[in-house]
Amino acid sequence: MSSGVVRIESVSRWFGDVIALNSVDLEFTKGVTGLLGPNGAGKTTLIRLLTGLALPGSGRVLLDGHPLRNNLDALSRIGYVADGDALYDELTARRFLEDQAAMRGFSRAAGKQRAVEVLERVGLSDAIDRRSGGFSKGMRQRLKLAQAMLHDPDILVMDEPLTGLDPVMRRDYIRLTRELGDEGKTVVVSSHVLHEIEAMTDSIVLMRHGQVLAEGTVAEIRDKLDTHARRIRLVAEKPRFFATRLLQEDGLLSGLVLETNALVVETRHPDRLCAFLGQAAVDRELDVCSIEPLDDDLTSVFAYLVEKRAGRA
Questions:
Q1: Strand partners for 187
Q2: Residue 260 per-residue DSSP state
Q3: CB of 263 within 8 A of CB of 242?
Q4: CA atoms of 120 and 70, how far apart (whole Å)
Q5: 251 DSSP 8-state letter
Q6: Is residue 252 within a helix (H) or strand (E), and if so which, with residue range?
Q7: Helix, strand, coil percent content, the chain, rounded in steps of 5
Q8: Longest Cα separation, the chain
Q9: Dist. CA 94–CA 87, nearest whole Å
Q10: Does the predicted model carry a pTM greater than 0.70?
């Protein structure tokens, strides 16, 4: 099978006067990519395009260079975990997947075997012969994932899959998602919860108002924000003396806050700060107990990008 690369080329999509997507260019390859943004950012519209459920107003959606829409060969390589819930409550988990397998062309014996395999993979082996109408929210999400995995697709697309899950089920779902990416599948996961995406992958697409704010790893995006001061907490035995020495370095800091046993510094020159701390340690002039970056997380990066984009408007 070919590589499983999905390309979004200059795609825009409108709903009346509302622009859901605005000239989006993206590429999704093997591994897990997080599609991140607040409600209304355009994530669900993009996912509907990725799964062939909608047409772009302009531009193209391609799988390995071939148009996706109405292409049965391409669509058969995609598994989809929808945000909504449309399970057949009267069917057991086993029967539901066996019926799905039959519709996908599995023989009866192969369908039975595959249904058991994927239910075990998602952690539903104990509920295999229970009707899904009695399933909890987390169990229903697992069954939806099992259905998406049934035909061993090259591409898995998940729309807000962690919504409503308890912490244990959320942890298991995140682990399984990472495993699927490690196995070479192209996995696209949307969420509006930043720390959930951060737990799944460091490859992200940040969206807002139908546009791509940034894409890449958190570190790559963060490194592009040269004008944004880095915030770092330095735990030291003598924080006041430490603060005095740092302030003596011309232009090194753009802000400083003293805490009980630490200081939080802001700098636009992290390389200079690292060099200063390293030399201070060699000279035994300053004793640094720990160094903690405070704004290398997704929340800070996203907030800054939104602020930056708003400033251009």
A1: 32, 156
A2: S
A3: yes
A4: 32
A5: T
A6: none
A7: 40, 30, 30
A8: 77
A9: 13
A10: yes
**Contact of 18 with 208, CB cutoff 8 Å:** no
State the pLDDT at residue 147: 96
> What would the two tokens of residue 208 be?
């807002």
Cβ 162 vs Cβ 173: under 8 Å: yes
Residue with tokens 């825009």: 12
Q: Determine the Cα–Cα distance for residues 7 and 5; give it in Å rounded to an integer.
A: 6
Whole-angstrom Cα distance, residue 146 to residue 311? Answer: 44
Pairwise CA distance, residues 17 & 63, whole Å: 29
Instruction: Assess contact for 189 and 81: CB atoms under 8 A.
Output: no
Strand order in the sheet with 186-191: 78-81, 155-159, 186-191, 31-36, 203-208, 211-217
Report the SS3 class of residue 153.
Answer: coil
What is the pLDDT averaged over residues 111-120? 97
Question: For residue 110, which amino acid is it?
Answer: A
Orientation of helix 93-103 relative to helix 108-121, angle to 10° = 130
Q: What is the pLDDT of residues 126-144, one digit of tens each?
A: 999 999 999 998 899 999 9
